Amino acid sequence: MDLSVINPILLLAALMSAATPILLAATGELVVERAGVLNLGVEGMMIVGAIAGFIVAVNTGSPALGFIGAAAGGAVLSLLFVFLTQVALANQVASGLGLTLFGLGLSALMGQSYVGVKPPRMADLDLGPLSDIPVLGRILFSHDAMVYIGLLIVLGVWAGLKFTRAGLVLRAVGENHDAAHALGYKVKRIRTLAILFGGACAGMGGAYISLIRVPQWTEGMTAGVGWIALALVVFASWKPWRVLLGAYLFGGITQLQLNLQGAGVAIPVEYLAMSPYIVTIIVLVILSADKSRAPGSLGRIFHASH
Amino acid sequence: MIRLEKRPQPSRQMALATPLLAVLATMVFGGLLFAVLGKDPVQSILTIFWQPLFGEFAFYYRPQLLVKGAPLVLIAMGLALGFRAGIWNIGAEGQYIMGAICGAAVALAFYPLDAWWIFPLMVICGGLGGFLWAMIPGLLKVKFGTNEILVSLMLVYVAEQFLSSMSLGLLKNPEGYGFPGSRNLQQYASAHNAEIIAGSGMHWGVVAALIAVIFAYVLLTRHRLGFAIRVTGEAPRAARFGGVNPARLVLFCLGASGMLAGLAGMFEVAGPAGQITIDFNVGYGFTAIIVAFLGRLHPIGILLAGALMALTYIGGDIAQSQLGLPAAAIQVFQGMLLFFLLALDVLTNYRLRFGAAEVA
Amino acid sequence: MTFTKLMATAALTLGLATGAFAQDKTKVGFVFVGPVGDGGWTYEHNQGRLAVEKEFGDKVETVYVESVAEGPDSERVMTQMALDGADLIFTTSFGYMDPTINVAAKFPNVKFEHATGYKRADNVSTYSARFYEGRAIQGHIAGAMTKSNIVGYIGSFPIPEVIRGINSAYIHAKKVNPDVQFKIIWAYTWFDPAKEADAAKVLIEQGADVILQHTDSTAPQAAAQKAGNVITFGQASDMAQYAPMPRVSSIIDNWAPYYIARTKAVMDGTWASTDTWDGIGPGMVGIGEISDAVPAEVKAEALALKDKIASGEYHPFTGPLKKQDGSDWLAEGETADDGTLAGMNFYVEGIEGDIPQ
Fold it and tell me: ipTM of this predicted complex?
C-alpha cells in the first residue's frame, strides 16, 4: 500500500471531467423537476444524445457540432415524453421508463454502423496563462470546453431560477400547478420547455461520454449514468449548486475508489459503489426535516378543467 | 383545435378498446420499422405474435409464456395495489433481488440436507427479504415523509451491488472453479422449484402469481382495505376524512409489493434461473411497472398484460433468430407498445373535442 | 388437442423434433450475451459466425440471438433454435453453462458448443482460448518498454480467467525487467466504457506508462493516447485504429477457425464431444501486428516468444514459480497443469495486493 502515489491535484482535475456527464444531465432534470415533472427517461435521452452527437461529430468532423446535435437528439426524444405527459396526460413514471426502453433500442439502431469508429477529438480549451498557475491551473483550467459549459449551465440555471421572472414562474408551476394556472400562467407550455431543456442537457451529457470521456460508440455505453443523475437531483434537494457538489461527490467516490485500488488498498469495491445511493437516502431523510423539499406538484398530472 | 374534456366517469368501452387499439397501432408502426430495417413487416409481426401461440412449436412456447410472465404478473400485481393508492414503489427490481438472495441463502445454508421444509422456508424467507427491503422506503416515508419513488429506486442499486458481492463472495459455489455464481438449486431437490407437471411451465411461482391475482381482485372489489386503496388514489383528502390511516396504507402497499417481488425473485432463483449470479436480475422489476400500467392497474388486466409482455419477449427472440431482426428493434417495438397504450389511455378518462377552445 | 400436445412433448424429449430430418443446409445457431455491436466479446463471436457463412456459403445457414440474459431466457432461446432445426449451437458465455447442459439433454441429436465452461456431455463440447499465451507476449513487451517500471492492469471481475492473464503478463514482464511493478484495478463490470476510461486515467496518473486491459472497450486506448507516452494493447479485437501508438499490439479473439472446423465436423458427421482449449498455435488467440513504436529487438524477442509458445516448445507457466505467499508452486522446468490454470485463484510471487473476495 502506498498512498503517496495518489496525486490529489490530478484526482481533483479528473473529478471535474468525470463529473461532467452527470452534472449536465442532472442540471437538466433539476429544471424539469422544478417545473413539477418527473422524467425517469434520463438514461434514454442520454444514450440517444450520445449516438446523435457521435454521428454528427463523425460526419462533420466537428465535436462542437456534435454537441449541438446531441442536444437536439435528446430534446427530440424528450418531445415524445412531452406528448405523452402533457398532451395525452399519461402517467409520468411509466412514460419515463418507456422513454428509457425506447431510447436504448433506438440508439442501438442508429449506431449500428458506428461501432469501432473513432470520433474527432475535442481539444482542451486553451486558457493561456491561467493553465500555468500552479495547482489551481491543473485542477481548474486544463479542461475541454464542455466542462466549463457544464458549469455555466449550472450557473445559468441557478441565476435563472433565482432571479428571473421566468424562473419564478417555473417554480410556481412546479409548486402548485392549479394556482399557477389560476394566475394565468401557461402550465403546459412552461413544462414543455422545461422538458425540452432537460432533454437537451441529458443529450449533451451523453455525448460527453461518447465524444470525450471514452470516446467511442458502443450500445448501452451510458451504463446507468442517467439513473445516477436522477439520484443526484434528489441528493441536491433541487438546488443547482448542490447538484454541482453532488456530482463531484458521486464522481469523486468512483475516482477515489479507483485511486485507492491503484495504490494497493484492499477495499470492498461493491460496498463503496453502494455508498452514493445510501448517502442519497440519508440526505433525503435529513431533508425531510428541512424546509427544502420536493416541488409540490412533482409527478402529478395537470389538466386545466376550465 | 383539439381539446380534451374530462369525462364524468371513465369510459368502460374505451378502457377495453384502447389496449386493443394500442396493440394494433404498435403492429402498424412496428411493421413500418421492420420494413425500414429491410424485413417483411407482416411476417415479422406474425413471428412475434402468432408463432409462440399457434405456431409449429407452440407446445413449447405456451408453457414458456407462463415462465416468463409469472414473475412479471406477480410483481406487477403488488405494484398495482400501491399505484392505485398513489404510492409509487419503483424499486421492485431491488426487492426481487433481495428476495432471491434470501431464498437462495436459506437453501445454500442447508445444502445438502434433504428435507421437505427447506422449500417452504425459502418461500417465507424470500418473501420476507423483499418485504423488509420495501419496508425501508415505507418506514422512511411514514416516519420522515421521504419520497418513496426515489428511495426505492436508490435501493435497487444498493441491491445490485449486494448481489454482485454475494455471487463473488459468500454465496459462491465452492465447487465452481472460482467462477462467480452460487450452486445451481435445480440440482438440489429439496430447494428446487420444479415444474409441478413436467413440460407445463407451471412452477410454484406461476401458482403464486395466479393466487396473487385472485387475492388482489377480491381485495380491491370486496374488502375494506381495497376500498381504502381506491379512495386514497382517487381522492386522498376524502380518504382521510373517511377514516383511512395513510401511514398504515403506505406500509401495507409497499410491504405487499415488496413481498410479492421478493417471492418472484425467490421462485425464479429456485426454479428457472437456478443460481445467484452477478447478472441474475434481468429487469423484471422495471418491466413489471410497465405491465402494471399496461394492465390498467386491474388484476385481470395485469394478467393479460403480463402475458402480452411475455409474448413480445418470446416472439421477439424468435424473430431475432428466424428473421435476423436486431434485439434493439424489439426493444423499440416494446417501447412503442407502451407509448401507444399510455397515449391512448387518455381516451378513457377524457373526451376529444374538436373546435376552438371556449373562453373559460 | 391434449393428445397432440402430449405427442409433441414426447417428440421433444426424445429429440425427434430436431434437425435429425434430412436437410440440405446445415443450420448453426449462436447465442450471444451482449449486442453484436459491443465492439468486443460478442462482436468477435459474430465475426466468427460471419466467417462460417463466408466459408460454406449456401451449404450453411446461421442464426443468432443477441443480448440474451443468462438463465431461463438463454434456455428458451437455445431450445427455440433446436426446435427450428439447428444442427449445431454455439453458446458464448460462461453463464450459459447449465442451460446448455439442460437443453442438450432434451435434444441428443443437436450438437452444442459452450464457450469457457467446464461441463460437458455426449453432445456438448466446451471451448475456450488460452488468452494467457497472448498475455505472456504483452508482458514481455510491457516489461521491456516501461520506463517508470509501473504497469497498470484493468481487470473486470476477479475470476480465474482474469487472474491467469495477470499472472502470465507479470511473469514475463518480470523476466525482462526485475523492477517491474503491477498496479491492478478491478472495474467490477464487464462493460462500462466510462469506468474503464477512468480506471486507465487513474493508472496513468499513478505513474503507469503501460496499460493492459481485460475489458473490451477502446476507452483505455483513448485515455492513453491523450496522456501521450503510454502504450496499450488491443483487447478482444485488434483496435488498430489506435496503432501505432498507443496500441502497440493486441490479443485478438479469433473464433473463426474453430467455428469453421466444428461446422465442418457436423457436416461430415465426425463431430464428437471435446474439450478444446486452444492458444496461439491453432490460431484461436491472435497477436495483432506489433507496431513500430516497439524497438526492433524487443519486437524480435516478442515474435520469438510467440513462435515458441505456438510450437508448444514453451509454456508460459513454467517453473520455478512461487505463489504470492511464498509457497512453492512449480519446480524448475515443471509446467502448470490445465486444472490448476482453469481454477487459478492466486497471484504468483511478486505481485502486490490481494485478490478481492
Answer: 0.88
